[in-house]
Amino acid sequence: MAACKGRKPSLPCEREVWGKKGIPAPSFGDPMASHRSARGGGKPRPRSPILLLAASVLAVALFWVFSSSQISSAPGAASATAKLGSEEDGSDGLERKYLYWGNRVDCPGKHCDSCEGLGHQESSLRCALEEAMFLNRVFVMPSRMCINPIHNKKGILRKSADGNPEERHALGVRLWAASSCAMDSLYDFLLMSKTVPVILDNSKMWHRVVSTSMKLGERGLVNVQGISRVDLKEDEPYSNVLLINRTASPLSWFMECKDRNNRSSIMLPYSFLPKMAAKNLRDAADKIKSLLGDYDAIHVRRGDKIKTRKDRFGVERTLHPHLERDTRPEFIQQRIAKWIPPGRTLFIASNERTPGFFSPLSASYKLAYASNYSHILDPVIENNYQLFMIERLILMGANTFVRTFNEDGTDLSLTDDPKKNTKSWQIPVYTMDGEES
Ligand SMILES: *[C@@H]1O[C@H](CO)[C@@H](O)[C@H](O)[C@H]1NC(C)=O
Ligand SMILES: *[C@@H]1O[C@H](CO)[C@@H](O)[C@H](O)[C@H]1NC(C)=O
Ligand SMILES: *[C@@H]1O[C@H](CO)[C@@H](O)[C@H](O)[C@H]1NC(C)=O
């Protein structure tokens, strides 16, 4: 990861991090530099007529090379392809229009060498997918997702938390140091395409869109930044172009959606991407759910969230003053008793790393963790994002589910502290005394 430090935040960094596997996405950024010899007319807007001519000739030639393999197949079956994001029925897919936001989800400025956790990146993906839906365009999905090394490390520690030593070995010794993973190891794009058509940016279809957009010139490609989705939908230079290339906020893709407080304009619920998990992840979750039978679940966020820091008088302060207390087993027990009767099977997902931390709850409940199912998870899981996606599906399938924080006002939660608090550092409360109610 440190390899990217001090580099320009654009392609060189991504090449190193992403380029190791798979076909690199076609480069638009500097076509004259590396793609000229390989791709001929790689420049979207040549400046001189001679270049333009040469570029068009090459582009047309390339177009024929690309499409000649398709000629023999039925031209009538056109639209199903792009709709499902598959490339098997031989259509050229060019009757659809495309939306591209770049080749990685969130590359926040100079912090391009790292990235946020899965939930954060999903907020960004949802924002981009909603725009594609709104514009009735196929979304061009980055083919890889960055994995935050901190989240991955927590995963390893979490796995050993309640497992016996053999499980620790089986689940802990893994290639979890990976800095990115294939997007299709996380999501099922055929399933997703039933709601929002999607192609990957390492697919043949994408290469075809790219080469065609160059051939078409201004009707082929438009680069936009900071233009509202309504304008993109209705205004002439954008509404009919084959490919819209949006440069999203350098902070985070989801910043593009932050002004949409009009709820009726939100098209995809939070649960959309969790439900789009890749088939092998959904299958693993289903197996575990059927072994659990009739179960309840809690998600206990400790680790990252219970951090304290000293103020200038040396007093410890935290953003979530009751969280450390409310996520300890004796307080959990007291809190959830009114929702989850004793004797129930309770599935616990947590980033707490102390072995046996939740064991006191076994006085009331039959406890289960992901580590109980290592025989199912081990063959499937290659990184912590996949584990998290399976755990999420298990949590969603619980009869009663208690979150750590009350996120939308109606959730059952372990604590009343708000999840979002970035300013008010308070003195943590560890005892029942001083509690409001
Ligand atoms: C999209 O636009 C950005 C900024 O203009 C550019 O750097 C990038 O190469 C473009 N990508 C595509 C696919 O056109
Ligand atoms: C919210 O969005 C809907 C649909 O886009 C629109 O009809 C409605 O007028 C908007 N409401 C406000 C308060 O902007
Ligand atoms: C899960 O494993 C723990 C030991 O790590 C054990 O106490 C518990 O009974 C197991 N739960 C199930 C449902 O097998």
From TrEMBL:
Annotated region (Disordered), positions in chain: 24-44
Keyword Ion transport among UniProt keywords: no
Signal peptide per UniProt: none
TM spans (from-to): 49-66
Keyword Transmembrane recorded: yes
Domain of life from the UniProt record: Eukaryota
Keyword annotations: Membrane, Transmembrane, Transmembrane helix
Gene Ontology cellular component terms for the protein in this record: Golgi apparatus
Protein name: O-fucosyltransferase family protein
